[in-house]
Design goal:
- By secondary structure, this protein is of the alpha+beta class.
- Helix content is 29%, strand content 26%.
- The protein is built from 13 helices and 20 strands.
Length: 494
């Protein structure tokens, strides 16, 4: 007999995982299907920021910025282990935007979203302030404002974990091959590691991101008046070249802004570009022109000039922005749009969105299905913690100290790593270990076998890459030889 569920979600990025979590928490039976790994596409290739989008004010996106700023506070409270405040220093270039305009934008940014937890903007004399030390002498004035950092791939995984804890079935490396209306339901066929399967679903959500239109035409056999515009955003990683845990935001000659963020302790994450893209999303890659563009933007402002050899890693993602007809890729809205086909069993297509507003997108999306599920529960995610985020007073430093008190043999760096990725679930990673040997084989850096085994058993990590690049960022700290040794071990454990 074919199983019947309330909701079938296609797409294991942040929007799909968020919708699955929201719906499961309302009491709906949910299946989420992802053809690759969770967050393997756009959702692990962002700028790693929960932010309002300061530059969107120039395009009069006031509603989007306000919603994002409100969500910034909600997400910070829900997951303080993977989201934390960061101060951004903006050196002023008088040849670009005038200082009064920048200050006005920052004033709006401070007050548009009901800021509560984060400190406001201040003006800096870069000749005297320590934040100005790495900046070239011609830039004398600057501003400092607040936003938040996020581990984007873990945000996706934590939503999936919470969805599963609430009864959802999460299927990774499982491709949805067909979805057709049959009576008052969708007959959905998919194939994964356990072979082919068919279910009936009372509603279908297409959260395919860059593949949303492909799913609509190839899998569902339909079309939509909506469309996505694919924009490539690339980042480079270099050694960190300033002191302090603050970030920088610099204006470029083309009016774009570039973020220069501290990353993984001793590195800098620099991006992003905005380039129209018409290739296959899975084949996206950084090109040399983008690397040169990002290096030039940094070198315009900083005394220590970066060269091509300083780039230790790069990555590129395709942002599926809702196509609003704007000519400039930077002006394309980051807002989200739903296309609900209610001619029979409902189909909800999700277009656009940004990582900061994923929770609100999910909430709004599930609300659109209330006619089909009139008895589902109320909105709930605004007050819910993500797994591991139930840290007293959201005080991560105190939590790390308590973790060390409970496990005094644990090196502080390892404790910090576990706390930042797993929060209150760190004890499950450590398990019954009473000394460092109890964590199992050490593969280099901060990676021990116990963590990899936890990820395989509890977070759908199926390959070495799942562990090293998405569930964690160990790949940035292990040599090629160490990574190969880990991959051999991981395969042998499977």
């Amino acid at each position: 007999m074919i199983q019947t569920v309330d909701l079938f979600v296609i797409g294991g990025g942040i929007n799909g995982a968020g919708i699955a979590r929201d719906a499961a928490g309302r009491g709906l039976s949910v299946i989420l299907c992802e053809k690759d790994d969770l967050a393997q596409g756009t959702s692990s290739r962002s700028g790693k920021l929960v932010h309002g989008g300061l530059r969107y004010l120039e395009y009069y996106e006031f509603r989007l910025v306000r919603e994002a700023l409100i969500e910034r506070e909600v997400l910070l409270a829900s997951a303080p282990h993977i989201i934390w405040p960061m101060r951004f220093v903006l050196p002023h270039s008088p040849t670009d935007r005038p200082a009064w305009l920048v200050r006005l934008g920052l004033f709006l940014y401070d007050h548009l979203g009901g800021r509560k937890r984060l400190p406001g903007t201040r003006t800096l004399n870069l000749g005297r302030a320590p934040e100005g030390a790495p900046i070239k002498d011609q830039y004398r004035k600057g501003f400092e404002y607040s936003d938040c950092w996020v581990d984007d791939a873990r945000l996706v995984v934590l939503n999936a974990i919470d969805a599963a804890a609430r009864g959802a079935r999460i299927l990774t490396r499982t491709a949805c091959t067909s979805a057709r209306r049959e009576g008052d339901a969708w007959r959905v066929e998919f194939i994964g590691p356990n072979g082919r399967e068919t279910v009936l679903a009372r509603a279908l959500v297409n959260a395919g991101g860059p593949w949303v239109n492909e799913i609509l035409t190839r899998v569902v056999g339909s079309n939509s008046r909506r469309n996505v515009r694919l924009v490539k955003g690339s980042h480079i990683i270099t050694p960190k070249f300033w002191a302090g845990d603050h970030a920088y935001l610099v204006q470029n000659h083309d009016k774009r802004v570039i973020f220069i963020n501290p990353y993984e302790g001793d590195k800098a994450l620099i991006g992003t570009t905005d380039i129209p893209y018409d290739g296959a999303p899975e084949q996206v890659a950084v090109d040399e022109a983008e690397i040169a563009y990002l290096l030039a933007a940094v070198n315009r402002y900083f005394k220590q000039e970066l060269c091509r050899e300083d780039v230790v890693h790069s990555f590129s993602g395709v942002r599926p922005l809702y196509d609003d007809g704007a000519g400039n890729p930077s002006a394309v809205t980051r807002d989200y749009v739903f296309d609900l086909d209610a001619n029979g069993a409902p189909l909800l297509n999700v277009f656009g969105g940004k990582i900061t507003t994923f929770r609100k997108l999910a909430e709004h999306g599930v609300q659109r299905l209330r006619a089909t599920f009139p008895d589902m529960g109320p909105d709930w995610t605004a007050d819910g913690h993500l797994p591991g985020g139930d840290i007293d007073d959201a005080d991560i430093s105190r939590f790390i100290n308590r973790l060390l008190a409970d496990h005094p043999w644990l090196p502080r760096q390892v404790a910090q790593h576990y706390a930042r990725l797993y929060g209150t679930r760190s004890h499950a990673v450590i398990g019954a270990a009473t000394n460092l040997d109890g964590l199992g084989r050490h593969f280099g850096g901060l990676l021990y076998a116990a963590e990899a085994q936890y990820l395989a058993g509890h977070e759908w990590a199926r390959t070495a890459e799942d562990v090293l690049t998405r569930r964690t960022k160990h790949a940035l700290h292990l040599s090629h030889t160490e990574q190969a040794a880990f991959a051999d071990w991981f395969v042998a454990q499977s």
